[in-house]
Amino acid sequence: MASRHAKKRPGSVPEYIASKPKEVRVVLERVRRAIRKAIPAAEEGLSYQIPVYKLNGVAVLYFAGWKAHFSLYPASDALVAEFARELAPYERSKGTIRMPLSQPVPERLIERIARFRAKQLTTREKGKAARKGPTVQLDRVRRIVATLPGVSEKLSHGMPSFFVAKDKGVFASFVDNHHQDGRLAVWLPVREGLQSLLIEDAPDTYFKPPYVGASGWVGILLSEIRDGELQIHLRQAWELIARKKRRKQPA
Predict the structure, then answer these.
(1) Residue 172 reports pLDDT greater than 70
(2) Do 49 and 9 touch, CB atoms closer than 8 A?
(3) What is the pTM of this model?
């Protein structure tokens, strides 16, 4: 008989929020909105029966609603030090930040905390990639493009470049310290309108390269991007150029 009245466990973040009293729901929706705005690429789900946001399978931030407060986890020593002044009014213990439901939701602070956590988690990976020299990074790019159909490689303007077919349709170039700019990067085309969005969203990773930048290409710093994301960019670049090449072929 008891099991008949047992509460159903939430299966999603919206269900989790909906399971709370109205006054808590309003607050949690604002917390959720702030986190999603700060890290839009994060995967949303439940872990330990509370909302979690993950990047590449790694948890960035959790939140939970209670009777008189909501909590954010985890609050590392580095995070607390970074936001010491802003967090001073709130209770903290064992890696948890507690914010009263009776006070306005500090959405801007939550956004900054989420971004800080995301940056914390990528620092180690970026550090590893940064230590890789040109040869290792070029091998990395070659390994990824080798999974694409018909790809060929040759030097073009002194840069190792990759083509959708034998010497036809360049879709990516590996660029090492072009004109002494200190960058180890790959240049490739992106969909119309995406160049400026990428640069605005992640200026530490993307930039407008010389010459081809005017045609909608983007530069990607190889020390700042993971293999999975780089693979997506290279595949999409290959598809863009292959599509253009097919259009030019006589009927």
Answers:
(1) yes
(2) yes
(3) 0.50
